[in-house]
Amino acid sequence: MVQQRKCKVAFLVLCIFVLMFTILMQDHLKKSFNKFDVLLATQLTSSTAVDYRKIYQDRSDSITERCLKQKHKSVILKSDRFKYSDKAKVVLCETPKVASTTWQIALLKLGGFNQEINDALMKKWAYQPMPNQLLSHLKTEHEASEIVRNYTSIMITRDPFERLVSAYRNKLSKVADYPYYRDTVGKQIARSQAAEYLHGVSLAVVQSPTPGSLDKSPQFQNLNEEQKRGVIEYAKILKNGEVSFKQFVRFINNYAKRMNVKDMDIHWRPQTDMCLPCNVNYTYVIRFENMVAESNQVLSWIQNDRPIDSPRVNITGGQPPSVKNSRTKRYFEQLDETEVEILRKVYADDFAILGYDPYKYNATKTV
Ligand SMILES: *[C@@H]1O[C@H](CO)[C@@H](O)[C@H](O)[C@H]1NC(C)=O
Ligand SMILES: *[C@@H]1O[C@H](CO)[C@@H](O)[C@H](O)[C@H]1NC(C)=O
Ligand SMILES: *[C@@H]1O[C@H](CO)[C@@H](O)[C@H](O)[C@H]1NC(C)=O
Ligand SMILES: *[C@@H]1O[C@H](CO)[C@@H](O)[C@H](O)[C@H]1NC(C)=O
Q1: Which residue's C-alpha comes closest to atom 8 of ligand 2?
Q2: Using an 8 Å Cβ cutoff, are 155 and 282 in contact?
Q3: pLDDT tens figures, 198-249
Q4: Which atom of ligand 1 has the smallest separation from the CA of 150?
Q5: Ligand 2: which of 151, 281, 283, 285 to mutate, most ligand atoms within 8 Å of CB?
Q6: Which range (166-170, 248-252, 362-366) has the least confidence?
């Protein structure tokens, strides 16, 4: 009896030991895995850091190569899109919706601008140009091309469709920063496409300031309830300019068919048309998709030969959230494949020259 009990106790003790050993080992194993992760991560970072310059060289080379397939265009460099600093010897192609404010500030600071960048200043810059030097202010195209050739030149690129969604959201949707674009472009789009939404009711009646005009109009009275609701909804859009993404895309597609892309608003004008990568040999082409890391890398090279104790310009904050492509995907699902196909043509040069995949975003509906 006694021996049996002793045996049981010994077995129990053994069990506890085994259990503790397993727990400890697991912890140890986990720790060593973590250590391995960290090690791997540092190795990866340092090896990419070594190859970083080659990445930029390869990017510039690929752009040059893709440009060979394009018709040679003569262009004007003396434009507002090019901002530069004589002091820093840097020229930047500034593309709205592609980290433009961040980089304009970096360029100002590289040139010695030492005013504190606070909210009041940012608000001011939302309405008026930032005080960068502009190639457009030079006297001759020759001077502009010398600066572009002699200085370190930088372009930041972004997936054309992600940029388009970003422009729509910031300028025309209900989450827009300021009502200016809805009041101008948005209302203009709403009026020009009204016929498709008003079921034969005239625009004059829908927009009439006289109360009750709509209800009294015979065309409106003849509509069924669903059509009436549609007209009332659209009357709101006519008033606030808050057009849908689909309407915005139709506007771009019509516009680009009729007009020169050069006349498009800079927020959705193709990047290649503003930054002219087939005419400018950019020293650094930065990808918006990895903007913070790449910008700081480039900024550190630019400042390499500065005295060690002089203030260093860098970009802080996280990577912009628009890297999330789920948002762009959601907007493109509202389109028809024919509409997306026309958009691909409008931005064909951006896709082809800057190296983005035109089929990353498809419409789900097919016609
Ligand atoms: C650009 O470089 C050329 C050749 O070195 C020089 O003659 C010219 O003055 C420079 N121009 C500018 C604007 O820096
Ligand atoms: C860009 O660089 C290439 C090769 O280095 C050269 O052939 C070309 O003329 C340059 N283009 C301009 C506009 O400077
Ligand atoms: C950016 O600059 C600030 C101020 O000079 C410095 O404290 C910070 O460490 C820098 N960050 C990076 C990532 O270089
Ligand atoms: C979009 O469509 C193209 C061509 O039909 C296809 O090759 C591509 O895989 C599609 N992309 C996605 C994300 O579904």
Answers
A1: 281
A2: yes
A3: 999 999 999 988 888 899 999 999 999 999 999 999 999 999 999 999 999 9
A4: 1
A5: 281
A6: 362-366
